[in-house]
Amino acid sequence: MKIIGLTGGIGSGKSTVAQLFVEEGFPLIDADVIAREVVAAGQPALQELADVFGADILEPSGELNRQLLAQRAFVDRETTDKLNAITHPRIQQRTQELFDAYREKDVEAVIYDMPLLVDNGLDRAMDWVIVVDVAAEERIRRLVEYRGLDEEDAQRRVKAQIPDGLRLAAADSVIDNNAAIDNLKPQVDQLISDAPWLA
Ligand code: ADP
């Protein structure tokens, strides 16, 4: 089974591209969904997080108060490491389980949608890396226009990620999403018909 890493800066259109692959029958493993799953109500990670960051990060309903956790966890390197030590192993385990389940089903290729694929060096573990490319100013514009972020927040989030040049350097294929959204499907269809990850 080939693992196709799909990445791009925040607001680049990764999720849109991922859905186009899904429509063509590719299974999708979504890193953001997994990251949310491991801290869903009732998950063991929550109690560990509460022990480290305070019981009040859990709502009476058992849900995680993400904002409060973020305030306390993203303070410095040490607190961030503590958060990661609790969540990362669980995220990795769950991701591996999903890969294994598809492998057992003899799936030819899966899409792994991972925003921080290159930032975290995971690109090297992929059989193929697709980067969705959009100029940073345009990503910021889309985050403001379609996701309702304020401009400063959008800029900060884009800046917090790996520089575009380094991300692009890790790409085996680049999907250009600078133009209108309907330019995506022809590029995805072409890639699927070429299937370079099978070569
Ligand atoms: P990501 O998953 O990379 O953060 P999304 O796929 O959610 O990005 O896209 C961000 C926003 O930009 C969405 O609202 C999406 O509909 C919109 N979008 C994606 N591609 C284009 C495009 N080519 N032109 C205009 N808007 C786009």
Walk me through the structure.
- The structure is a single chain.
- With 199 residues, the protein is an alpha/beta fold.
- The chain folds into two domains: 1-27 and 109-199, 3-Layer(aba) Sandwich (Rossmann fold), CATH 3.40.50.300; 35-106, no CATH class.
- Helices cover 51% and strands 13% of the residues.
- It is built from nine helices and five strands.
- A five-stranded parallel sheet has the order 2-3-1-4-5, with helices on both faces.
- Helix 6 crosses helix 7.
- The mean pLDDT is 97.
- Adenosine-5'-diphosphate binds at residues 8, 10-16, 142, 146, 177, 180-181.
- Structural classification: alpha/beta
Termini, distance in Å? Answer: 13 Å
- DSSP E strands, number: 5
Tally of discrete structural domains: 2
Q: List the uncertain runs.
A: none
Percentage of residues in helical conformation: 40-55%
Highlighted features:
5 strands, globular, 199 residues, five-stranded parallel β-sheet, alpha/beta, 9 helices, 2 domains, binds adenosine-5'-diphosphate, Rossmann fold
Concise structural overview:
With about 200 residues, this protein is α/β, with parallel strands linked by helices. It has 9 helices and 5 strands; from the N terminus they run E-H-E-H-H-H-H-E-E-H-H-H-E-H.
